[in-house]
């Protein structure tokens, strides 16, 4: 039992135009990655509320990935700049409060970057496996 | 609520990796799900009618489709919903193909994930709200950015369909790269002879307005209603007064390298780009003009008989409305000076193909004679090197520039024909001749004596002989040995590259660039002309390397897309717009500056408090402007701002379901 | 120094009485002496006579701005006494349509800084009721049973006031500045950098991640979800707070769930991140003594460090979280790649 690999749960918010498309392209290209990720589709990464990220952690996510268009490529012009700023501050505050900010990733993945999507999910899963189950910001009433 | 879940096999695409029976069985136990079924192909007519029947039989009011990506078939299922009298946004798609069956191999784990994805979709659809779209008017005027052959063709087609077009070109004349070419393959047509009539037609067309020496400075708005700011650079020459006599050009004392001839000739500080320029009015290049540098000179103004020279002219910002935009900004050629092995810039007799093209041109720097830049004599032996900066993952671009094989064949033919006795050697990696009559053309070049050597050149260096020739060392793969050729002239087929400002313009237009800087099309196979931004279409090499006929066909395709939009006369507004719950809204307006479309404004609502009427400020969303990004909802503190189709409640339900 | 407190008090009383007598306002919102020793509490004067009870001293810390949104203040002409931080909050409230500036007469007070009572008591080493205070120019002279001592103002002032750059409201924001005669401020021309005043932040930053977590768990787990911090905050001005929603359940106030406290306090800090005027009310009113202001101050420091200085309620809107652009730092691009 001790040697069993811990399989983390990853909740991802992917913007429809870049990262969700990148994930689709990974599918079309049959690029393999771990099954741990569950993608929630949002129009733009800036749609994601801080509350949703915290809620994902409460609900047992071991990692939260937010993926958006590269800076400058936002379908809505400026959305990912807002995301960048908000998540930057949130990461810092989580760090300050000892809430494992390393479990929250924001990455820029374009619609062409199927390989980057694959690499990101793979790397995130591996890091989270090494970290083990998250015990931060966890609402114990939520069943895993 | 009565939710129906439909699990697609997608033939074997899903079924092989996901246990669809298990997913269906599990779906039946999910909250509010009253019906679940698996179907071989949900997108097929059979599949669609299965869903339709189930909606009727089981009185479903929400549908979850577990199938391919919503980016693939969401509209298909939304149309079905509408046909069944249900709101199109009452269907939710669980992406169990691209995000599951295609990326995983372990069937057990993939099935668990597929169940999760269905559960997530069921949770989301339970909180779905009905959404509608409005019909918005379309401004029936097109903007074409870039006045090369692709831009000209697109402008002409749209104009011929009866719609006004503005054509913006950054140089002082339209024509683009094609104007610099001497002949075109595979017909050896004179490039100018086929291009200039089109240029003139564009300039004189009643529906086309030219903005030369102008650039797009800002773009806002959306399909059907773009607001574009065009920066009209000061030409310093009043086009109304100028009669194009050219006296100013003759008298101008300042000479600078002529970009049109790749710097191999000189032009004046006041100049027309080339003799057949359209419009054929000179402009003053302020960076090089003596008057603008020192305040002295003013010769051009003195000799101008019509008083057309206007030094005081200012750059002008022009704002226009457009319904559609065609991007035809073309390309640049790589300057190969960083590729040291080719000695470009080190030996004068190493030139690029475009420099040779200019020499071959009768109105070029040498009036059609091919010479060695080092001594002005005719070269006898010429070495062509292919793929300079193309198909080169280390120091250049990974892609094939597509046209070099053919224009090099053309060059060997032209040289052979004009100057019999010249020897042409071509170093190549592969010769790619996919195009109508291209293989035949290449065959002809070989038959006419061009020597093709398959192999890469390792070094180009001065031979050091009395003639100052160039030694080309390479490997001939057919002979399997090193070869050395003493050449009089070396011609480099340099790579086509995206415009350096492509990303900036793309940012303004809301379209993305690929890893090489070329604009990305909406779908690689089926929507090669459209972009992610509705109403913005691509034409020519700005989308990727192309030859002239391909660029022209894409331009016509882009034109037709614009024409379709104008003929329709209306666009559907985005249904998934932001919405304000006025009761909760404090009217703090923190959301207002976040909106990239200026869709949020403040309005006063009147409410009754203790029997008295009171005014209160709240935010309000202009649904015609909102494009549904949700940045405002992501920020709103009180949760008053929400986004249709992606409400906080829906997204939280998704999070909670996992 | 004694004279500046007295002269401001006198000036407030006179101005208030005049406004009420002239019928220019229906009420004056200010401070009066509290029941406890060295305590000032909010006070509403509706008659010229009552104006005599208005009072000013370094214990008028309660932020008055939030009262202006209360129902009983609507459709009334109100004069309000405002310190620098209050006025900043008021300016935000005005720009956020929460109050109608036209119905207000703002009496901006030249604030000398506020003294938290518990800090004073701790520094004095004697219960407050045993102390008589005399405002000297070099510090506060305390006379109690143990004798007399003078404490420097730096030693007793609120850390928020030590870092305050806007003690007196801007002339443009108020109808009248009430400036006393005599010494200008308790801390003369000295502004202590926030890092020094809030040295706890650095202390926490230097802890290990688990230690930080344990520290905040220990702090936040005391939260009883009374929402005093929210209610007292002059920039927590939403018409309806998301934490008052009954549904959905993720916003509940389950007191036995650390994650819910973390959720609430992260969100609360975020909601005022770029709007905090640094009045310190959140921490002051917390019945459990949770140092909530550290979260706000941390965010302010981050914003300042990475996005440039912005003073809410002083600088022009948009606030930092309402605008973002290409020029800003990208911590998630190449740097994030390992």
From TrEMBL, chain A:
Name used for this protein in its record: Coenzyme F420-reducing hydrogenase, delta subunit
> Any keyword NADP?
no
Asked whether the UniProt record includes Iron among its keywords, one would answer yes
InterPro entries referenced in this protein's UniProt entry, alphabetically? MvhD/FlpD
Please tell me the species this chain comes from. Answer: Anoxynatronum buryatiense
One GO MF annotation is: oxidoreductase activity
Which regions form coiled coils? none
What keywords appear on the UniProt entry? Iron, Iron-sulfur, Metal-binding, Oxidoreductase
Q: Which Pfam families match?
A: FlpD (PF02662)
TrEMBL record, chain B:
For the keyword Oxidoreductase, the answer is yes
What Gene3D superfamilies has UniProt attached to this entry?
Answer: 3.30.70.20, FAD/NAD(P)-binding domain (3.50.50.60)
Could you say which cofactors this protein requires? Answer: FAD
Sorted keywords for this record are: 4Fe-4S, FAD, Flavoprotein, Iron, Iron-sulfur, Metal-binding, Oxidoreductase
Q: Which domain of life is it from?
A: Bacteria
Q: Pfam families from the xrefs?
A: Fer4, Fer4_7, NAD_binding_8
Q: Which InterPro entries match?
A: 4Fe4S_Fe-S-bd, 4Fe4S_Fe_S_CS, FAD/NAD-bd_sf, HdrA-like
Q: Name the PANTHER family for this protein.
A: COB--COM HETERODISULFIDE REDUCTASE IRON-SULFUR SUBUNIT A (PTHR43498:SF1), FERREDOXIN:COB-COM HETERODISULFIDE REDUCTASE SUBUNIT A (PTHR43498)
> Which family is this sequence assigned to?
Belongs to the HdrA family.
Spell out the protein name for this chain.
Answer: Heterodisulfide reductase subunit A
Q: What is the lineage of its organism?
A: Bacteria, Bacillati, Bacillota, Clostridia, Eubacteriales
From TrEMBL, chain C:
Highest taxon listed in the record's lineage: Bacteria
Instruction: Cite the InterPro entries for this sequence.
Output: 4Fe4S_Fe-S-bd, 4Fe4S_Fe_S_CS, Helical_ferredxn
Keyword Iron belongs to the record: yes
Cite the 4Fe-4S ferredoxin-type domain residue spans from the record. 267-297
Record flagged with keyword Metal-binding: yes
User: Which keywords are on file for this protein?
Assistant: Iron, Iron-sulfur, Metal-binding
In its UniProt record, a GO molecular function of this protein is: metal ion binding
The protein, known as? 4Fe-4S dicluster domain-containing protein
- Native species of this protein? Anoxynatronum buryatiense
């Amino acid at each position: 039992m001790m040697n069993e690999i811990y399989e983390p749960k990853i909740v991802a918010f992917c913007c429809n135009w870049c990262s969700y498309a990148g994930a689709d392209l990974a599918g079309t290209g049959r690029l393999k990655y771990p099954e741990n990720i569950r993608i929630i589709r949002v129009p733009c990464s800036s749609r994601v509320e801080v509350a949703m990220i915290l809620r994902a952690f409460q609900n047992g996510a071991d990692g939260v990935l937010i993926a958006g268009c590269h800076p400058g490529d936002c379908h809505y012009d400026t959305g990912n700049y807002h995301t960048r700023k908000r998540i930057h501050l949130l990461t810092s505050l989580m760090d300050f409060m000892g809430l494992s900010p390393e479990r929250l990733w924001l990455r820029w993945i374009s619609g062409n970057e199927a390989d980057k999507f694959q690499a990101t999910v793979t790397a995130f899963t591996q890091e989270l496996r090494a970290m083990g189950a998250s015990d931060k910001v966890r609402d114990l009433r939520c069943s895993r | 609520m009565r939710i129906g879940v439909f699990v697609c096999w997608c033939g074997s695409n899903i079924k092989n990796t996901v246990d669809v029976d298990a997913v269906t069985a599990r779906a039946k136990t999910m909250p509010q799900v009253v019906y679940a079924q698996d179907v071989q192909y949900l997108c097929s007519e059979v599949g669609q009618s299965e869903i339709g029947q189930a909606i009727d039989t089981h009185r479903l009011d929400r549908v979850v489709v577990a199938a391919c990506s919503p980016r693939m078939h969401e509209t298909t299922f939304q149309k079905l919903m509408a046909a069944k009298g249900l709101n199109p946004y009452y269907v939710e798609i669980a992406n169990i193909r691209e995000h599951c069956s295609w990326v995983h191999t372990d069937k057990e784990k993939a099935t668990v994930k597929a169940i999760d994805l269905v559960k997530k979709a069921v949770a989301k659809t339970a909180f779905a709200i009905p959404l509608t779209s409005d019909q918005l008017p379309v401004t029936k005027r097109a903007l074409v950015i870039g006045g090369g052959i692709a831009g000209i063709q697109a402008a002409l087609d749209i104009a011929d369909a009866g719609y006004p077009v503005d054509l913006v070109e950054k140089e002082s004349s339209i024509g683009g790269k094609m104007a610099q070419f001497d002949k075109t393959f595979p017909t050896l047509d004179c490039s100018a002879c086929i291009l200039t009539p089109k240029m003139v037609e564009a300039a004189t067309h009643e529906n086309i307005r030219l903005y030369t020496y102008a650039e797009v400075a800002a773009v806002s708005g959306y399909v059907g209603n773009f607001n574009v700011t065009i920066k009209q650079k000061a030409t310093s020459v009043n086009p109304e007064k100028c009669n194009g006599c050219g006296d100013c050009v003759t008298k101008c004392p300042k000479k600078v390298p002529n970009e049109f001839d790749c710097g191999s000739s000189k032009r004046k500080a006041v100049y027309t780009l080339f003799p057949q320029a359209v419009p054929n009015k000179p402009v003053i290049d302020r960076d090089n003009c003596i008057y603008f540098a020192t305040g002295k000179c003013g010769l051009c103004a003195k000799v101008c008989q019509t008083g057309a020279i206007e030094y005081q002219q200012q750059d002008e910002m022009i704002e226009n409305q457009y319904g559609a935009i065609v991007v035809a900004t073309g390309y640049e050629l790589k300057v190969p000076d960083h590729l040291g092995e080719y000695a470009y810039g080190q030996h004068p007799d190493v030139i690029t193909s475009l420099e040779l093209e200019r020499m071959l041109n009768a109105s070029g720097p040498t009036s059609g004679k091919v010479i060695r830049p080092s001594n002005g004599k005719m070269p006898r032996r010429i070495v062509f090197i292919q793929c300079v900066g193309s198909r080169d993952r280390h120091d250049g671009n990974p892609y094939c520039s597509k046209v070099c094989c053919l224009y090099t064949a053309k060059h060997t033919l032209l040289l052979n024909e004009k100057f019999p006795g010249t020897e042409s050697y071509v170093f190549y990696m592969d010769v790619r001749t996919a195009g109508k009559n291209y293989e035949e053309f290449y065959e002809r070049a070989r038959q006419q004596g061009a020597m093709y050597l398959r192999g890469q050149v390792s070094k180009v260096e001065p031979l050091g002989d009395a003639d100052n020739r160039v030694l080309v060392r390479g490997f001939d793969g057919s002979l399997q040995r090193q070869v050395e050729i003493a050449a009089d002239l070396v011609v480099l087929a340099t790579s086509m590259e995206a415009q350096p400002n492509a990303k900036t313009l793309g940012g303004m237009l809301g379209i993305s660039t690929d890893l090489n800087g070329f604009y990305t099309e909406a779908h690689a196979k089926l929507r090669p002309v459209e972009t992610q931004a509705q109403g913005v279409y691509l034409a020519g090499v700005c989308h990727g390397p192309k030859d002239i006929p391909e660029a022209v066909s894409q331009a016509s395709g882009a034109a037709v897309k614009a024409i379709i939009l104008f003929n329709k006369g209306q666009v559907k507004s985005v249904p998934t717009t932001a919405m304000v719950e006025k009761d909760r809204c404090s009217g703090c307006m923190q959301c207002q500056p976040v909106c990239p479309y200026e869709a949020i404004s403040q309005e006063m609502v009147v409410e009754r408090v203790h029997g008295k009427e009171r005014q209160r400020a709240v935010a309000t969303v202009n649904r015609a402007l909102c494009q549904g990004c949700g940045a405002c909802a992501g920020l709103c503190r009180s949760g008053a701002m929400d986004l249709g189709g992606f409400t906080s409640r829906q997204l939280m339900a998704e999070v909670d379901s996992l | 120094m004694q004279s500046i407190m007295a002269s401001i008090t006198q000036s407030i009383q006179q101005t208030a009485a005049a406004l009420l007598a002239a019928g220019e306002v229906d009420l004056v919102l200010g401070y009066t002496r509290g029941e406890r020793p060295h305590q000032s509490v909010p006070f509403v004067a509706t008659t010229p006579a009552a104006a005599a009870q208005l009072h000013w001293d370094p214990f008028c810390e309660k932020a008055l701005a939030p009262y202006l949104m209360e129902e009983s203040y609507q459709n009334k002409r109100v004069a309000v006494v405002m310190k620098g931080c209050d006025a900043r909050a008021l300016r935000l409230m005005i720009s956020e349509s929460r109050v109608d500036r036209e119905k207000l007469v703002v009496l901006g007070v030249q604030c000398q800084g506020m003294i938290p009572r518990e800090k004073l008591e701790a520094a004095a080493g004697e219960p407050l009721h045993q102390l008589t205070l005399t405002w000297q120019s070099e510090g506060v002279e305390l006379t109690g049973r143990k004798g007399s001592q003078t404490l420097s103002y730096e030693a007793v002032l609120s850390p928020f006031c030590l870092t305050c750059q806007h003690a007196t409201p801007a002339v443009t924001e108020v109808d009248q500045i009430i400036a006393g005669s005599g010494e200008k401020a308790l801390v003369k021309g000295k502004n202590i950098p926030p890092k020094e005043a809030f040295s706890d932040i650095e202390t926490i930053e230097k802890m290990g991640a688990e230690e930080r977590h344990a520290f905040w768990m220990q702090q936040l787990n005391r939260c009883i979800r009374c929402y005093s911090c929210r209610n007292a905050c002059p920039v927590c001005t939403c018409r309806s707070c998301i934490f008052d929603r009954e549904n959905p359940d993720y916003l509940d106030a389950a007191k036995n769930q650390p994650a819910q406290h973390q959720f609430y306090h992260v969100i609360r800090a975020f909601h005022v991140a770029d709007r905090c005027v640094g009045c310190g009310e959140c921490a002051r009113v917390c019945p459990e003594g949770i140092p909530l202001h550290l979260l706000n101050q941390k965010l302010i420091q981050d914003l300042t460090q990475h996005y440039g200085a912005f003073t809410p309620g002083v600088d022009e809107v948009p606030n930092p979280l309402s605008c973002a652009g290409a020029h800003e730092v990208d911590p998630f691009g190449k740097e994030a790649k390992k």
